[in-house]
Amino acid sequence: MPTHPLDRERLQRALDLAATSFGLTEPNPRVGCVIGTADGRVFGEGATQQAGGAHAEVQALRAAQAAGHDVRGATAWVTLEPCAHHGRTPPCCDALVGAGIGRVVAALQDPFPAVAGTGLQRLRDAGITVELAGTDLPDLADLADAAHELNIGFFSRVQRGRPWVRLKAAASLDGRTALPNGVSQWITGEAARRDGHAWRRRAGAVLTGIGTVLADNPRLDVRLVPTARQPLRVVVDSQLRLPPDAALLAPPGGVLVVGASDPGTRAPVLQAAATVQLLPGSDGRVDLGALLSDLAARGVNELHVEAGAVLNGALLAGGWVDELLLYVAPTLLGSGRGIAALGPFEQMAQTLRFAFLDCTPVGGDLRLRLRRASDVSMSIRFTEAPPRESGGDAK
After folding, report:
1. pLDDT tens, position by position, 333-358
2. CA–CA separation, 140 and 134 (whole Å)
3. Residues 280-331 pLDDT 10s
């Protein structure tokens, strides 16, 4: 099917709108919508709001109505299939049908079982022309990939039953994250730290270990970039040693402390300031797989990890890390603390292989993004059977 000359421009604009929803829509996907005509007029635009708020299609329809436009016969370019079920909001496909939209161009089909093609089919049943980027419009396959990247955590949670795990670290050229005495402020510059907060903002939760809390007393909130909401702060703390005056227990935002056992009466003390969950593994430590499943059930799409070498090593060795976000400073620290406690390996085949996604200068430092070598494609299509519970918007 041929691509209309405006399809690329309008769908790209919808993607740009969706990107404005970072730090806002969790657990819902980030979606953008543009409504206009084939002759170049734009009637309305919108992006999904906070959970329970208007979705992108409704926002765009409201904007068109407020401007006095008649959208009958118009085209809606949207980055994800319009929803087809009642959650906290009515189905978006019904809103488009009711408005008289004549054509819908969607970047991707929604993986959530309650939608998963149903929204597109209901539009077709109403006589609306529906075209899917990459499938009906192969020239727009790259925009379908971009839409998947934008919501890679939502796809991971719905299709794999766990969040997309992004491990962040700041290191020297020789791979050190701190001096031998633990001093690490600051290896990288202000621009890199601000950029790191932007990645925190897009995550539903920030994870660290009790060792990092006891050594650095971090806040783990988003404060260097504007945000509409704070991510959930999660501490892996097998023996519930978290001090009641820890900085991350201060508002705003919630805190989840995950332990393996409760020695004495620690859980009731911590429950005054945090949610406590016991997820013991067979080795007496926290079961990291169970933790990721628990976070998915809480609606976390992307998990941002800022931890020490022990927890980083456990996540990497367990195969739980999907992406590395490394800020490399142009300095050498010599002996010091490493990014992850791994190995020792005896053969190269045992090592963990990653592939570069991008290398971007940030201030005087370099930001590296890497994924497992087997997942190097910018468009990762998950193949595990989707769980039947927990989607977005009481999706």
Report:
1. 888 889 999 888 888 888 888 999 99
2. 5
3. 998 889 999 999 999 999 999 999 999 999 999 999 999 999 999 999 999 9
Residues in the chain: 395
Please give the positions annotated as active site: 57
Q: Could you tell me the two tokens for 176?
A: 């050190």
pTM score of the predicted model: 0.89
Residue carrying the six token digits 């070598």: 373
